[in-house]
Amino acid sequence: MPEVMFAGPDGRLEGRYHHSKRSNAPVALILHPHPLHGGTMNNRVTYSLYQRYQAMGFSVLRFNYRGVGRSQGRYDGGIGEVADACSGLDFLQAVNPNASMLWVAGYSFGAYVGMQVLMRRPEMGGFVSISAPASHYDFGFLAPCPCNGLIFHGADDELVPEPSVRKLVDKLNTQKGITIDYRVMPGAGHVFTPEQTEKVVDAAEDHVMGVLNRSRMALAAD
Known about the structure:
Blueprint: E1 3-8, E2 11-18, E3 27-31, H1 44-55, E4 59-63, H2 79-95, E5 102-107, H3 109-120, E6 126-130, E7 149-154, H4 162-173, E8 180-185, H5 194-221
Parallel strand pairs: 3-4, 3-5, 5-6, 6-7, 7-8
Antiparallel strand pairs: 1-2, 2-4
């Protein structure tokens, strides 16, 4: 799990990067929760997603937004953090020029940042959004949503009521060619226990491997 420092728009950013042995391995960017509420790249869900993507054979990066840990700069209300994430993708693509697919996965505020990144990078192949803060931010920018993905939420989320996320999912699913895999965990709040976190990343793996396997089958059929 080598430590990396890469150039961001407001200074150097601190990350952890795993490089797959496969030359054309898919790549994934993992985004952490809100920096003003204790979010870092070592958050339990963020770290677990990083490990699981690594186990699936991805080259994968998690990093600290500006002003978090040893990353330079200061919090920028979400705008700068989206730019930081795009710099993370630049880093991933520079060291993985032959990547077969590009994914973004985020938890809470990181899910919001990840969806913003989707709109800026049309080459994205899929996304995983955990506890997306649909009641706190306007997700109307997803028009149209550029690709399919997984949205996962706790049924008893006390910060982001589940109906607000279901409304977002229903809206996205009306878009032509878009199918959102929406999964709700009974009894889960916004912060997941270690046992719940394992189920979160199990769901992410199930979704991601399903997409990758369909992609391989389509290529084999050509």
